[in-house]
Design brief:
single chain, 9-stranded mixed beta sheet, 6-stranded antiparallel beta sheet, 8 helices, 15 strands, globular
Length: 293
């Protein structure tokens, strides 16, 4: 397998990280995951804007150039024989020796890794998946806004819990805030519909400001669908007519089963993807294909 490393394309085993890299020592680093449509990175400008803001917050001197990243990605995909890809761009703070930093990180290290897009049976977007409430609490962001950082322990702990519950294959786990409000999935943002209105947890809950989340809210506004961001409970979620989760890789995945911490499940709506989910997924894909044609 070949990977991108500081702008080049090399064998994966050669893309090493120093033991004194502060991404390794202290988790000082960021990443973006996205996918391609027609071989082109989807909404790369938005992903790079979020990455840039994160680098500024962590004092990592890296300003990505979109044209360069697109060209670099093309080279990495070709080297791995991929026409479409699941992509991860990682920025680590770099080698700053042992001890906390005294100034900005001026020598960041970059990795661009790809793999085939996961196979998603079309039936998933009709029959949906399970969303299981977890006991693991969503941790608070280290700063004002949650960064897509290398600090991923909370998510991994949640993933381990989900695996122990005996959830259905492909199920997602849902975390509450310490106050008990709905937050987000392990690797997704959450949406639900009640009486024709769209709801999603507020960024004030400390969730990641997801790119797909942002796009869904924009598409809802363009489609004349009323939407609200706020603080919501599990009790409100189980009364929803439709539920779905979003991510840049899997798009909008309907949730048709909600399971609580005691293993008690309820069926959402008719048990199949709802009208607003179908509408927004269609418009999301149409936008993605047209912009990357």
């Amino acid at each position: 397998m070949k990977v991108g490393y500081n702008g080049s394309v090399i064998e994966a085993e050669k893309a090493v990280v120093s033991v004194f890299d502060h991404g390794f020592l202290y988790g000082m680093g960021l990443f973006e995951t996205f996918r391609t449509y027609g071989g082109q990175a989807h909404k790369l400008n938005r992903h790079l804007a979020r990455l840039t803001a994160g680098c500024e917050a962590l004092h990592i001197r890296y300003l990505p150039d979109e044209a360069h990243v697109r060209s670099w990605l093309s080279d990495v995909m070709k080297a791995n024989g991929l026409e479409e890809a699941y992509v991860r761009l990682t920025v680590s703070a770099g080698d700053e020796g042992l001890g906390l930093p005294h100034g900005d990180y001026t020598n960041p290290q970059l990795w661009l890794t790809v793999k085939p897009l996961p196979e998603m049976p079309p039936s998933v977007y009709d029959q949906g998946r399970e969303l299981r409430l977890l006991r693991t609490v969503r941790n608070s962001p280290e700063g004002d806004t949650r960064l897509k950082s290398l600090h991923y322990m909370n998510n991994i702990i949640a993933k381990r819990e989900l695996q122990r519950t005996g959830a259905a294959p492909g199920a997602e786990g849902l975390l509450l805030t310490k106050e008990g409000w709905l937050s987000e999935g392990i690797v997704s943002n959450l949406f639900f519909v009640r009486n024709g209105k769209l709801y999603t947890p507020s960024l004030a809950t400390g969730i990641l400001p997801g790119i797909t989340r942002e796009l869904v809210l924009e598409l809802a506004a363009q489609s004349g669908i009323a939407a609200e961001e706020g603080l919501y409970s599990w009790e409100q979620l189980i009364q929803a007519d439709e539920v779905w989760v979003t991510s840049s890789i899997q798009e909008l995945v309907p949730v048709t089963t909600l399971t609580d911490m005691d293993g008690q499940s309820v069926i959402v709506g008719s048990g199949r993807a709802g009208r607003l989910h179908r509408l927004l997924l269609e418009r999301y894909r149409a936008d993605a294909v047209s912009r990357n044609a």
